[in-house]
Amino acid sequence: MDERFVNEILDYTLPKLRAEYGGYTFPRSFVSDMFVKVLERYRARLTAGGINPALYGVPAPDIVKYICGYHYAYTCNTDDAGRIALTRDEAYRSRLVTDVAESIFILENIKTSAKRIINEYNPVYCRFNILLDYLLAVGLKGSSACTERTSKAVYKLFETAFLKLKGIMMLAAKGLEKEAIVVWRSLHELECVISVLCKYGKDVVEEFETFDRFSDPDRMDEKTRADYDEKTKKFGINLKNANEVDHFENYGWMGAVPDLQLTKWNLNFRYLEDLAGLGDKYKEYQVACDASHMNAKILKWNKRKVLEFVIKRCFNSDLFLVTKYTEFLISNGAAIDQKFVGKMIGDLKNIIDIFFEEK
């Protein structure tokens, strides 16, 4: 192994560990030797378990943390002379390598080997987070500089969408794939709203905000109440019909879309989805609705099928939202590195393709 690589890892990790362990100094040459041997054994263990180390291996700094943690636990009740002697004891060194490598595999990868699930160290997970964090950072700067209220409202919706994407990946990494599908359902609803608002602009955004105030009729002021009554009358909403009222409050804002012949009969999500240009995702949305009720069909899916659904839906939503967000940022004068975003999207697609090609 490249000695420079090992030194860089130790330079980064050992000072932090010394602080964490109250000034305890781990012998550098000993940790260096153990790191090389543990890493070799750990990778062999992954390969033997049919797991690709490049995709699922724990990062090098974390391996150093495991080594130091186990060494500290084994020697904390030993005096200095005893600790030094143990670092030279071949039996102890061999035991430490075996215990650490096996523990990392069990604690970090056993779920992967059994269920083929992603974890926090998987490149798919990492690439999603890097891209989303970058976009959130750009959006935060853009929102702070933005003075127009309607644009700020759309910034906020994009931020919510990206946080939902991060949450979905976190659930998948924890083995909660079916729960991740449920969150994707709400994300898809949000991306439809964002698409329509970005397409039709300020007047529709203002109407969307007006209907947002309708969501709590008991706390509406006099002007908002009058507006609510006028619009329900215009749509012919039966206020005693909870279903009609619910659809009106969720989708009535679409009435501000120019030249749209909207009646109470098309105040529904399917109509919003078509208006957003995402009608081809309706079947996927129905699957997510089934998952939210733990439909028997979904419960029969194996983990890999559920995971594939989640990751691919996330990637498609990510691609759609990033495209819309890039256009929105540019139109609002924000600076965005399109080359970086394009490279991240390309890398992410390639990694996902590799991930699902594995047998």
Topology:
Blueprint: H1 3-20, H2 28-48, H3 53-56, H4 60-75, H5 80-87, H6 90-115, H7 123-145, H8 149-173, H9 177-200, H10 202-213, H11 222-235, H12 242-251, H13 269-275, H14 282-292, H15 296-299, H16 303-331, H17 338-357
Walkthrough of the structure:
- With 359 residues, this protein is mainly alpha-helical.
- The protein has two domains: 3-115, no CATH class; 123-357, no CATH class.
- The chain contains 17 helices and no strands.
- α7 packs antiparallel against α17 (338-357).
- It is elongated.
- Residues 112-117 have low confidence and may be disordered.
Chain oligomer state? single chain
Mean pLDDT level: 81
Using only C-alpha atoms, the radius of gyration works out to: 27 Å
The total strand number stands at: 0
User: Into how many domains do the coordinates divide?
Assistant: 2
State the helix count: 17
Helicity range of the residues? Answer: over 70%
User: Gap between N and C termini, in Å?
Assistant: 29 Å
Assign the structural class, choosing from mainly alpha, mainly beta, alpha/beta, alpha+beta, or little secondary structure: mainly alpha
Question: Spans of 5+ residues with little confidence (pLDDT < 50)?
Answer: 112-117
**Main sheet summary:** none
Strand content: under 5%
- Give the overall shape, derived from the CA principal axes: elongated
State the order of secondary-structure elements, H for helix, E for strand: HHHHHHHHHHHHHHHHH
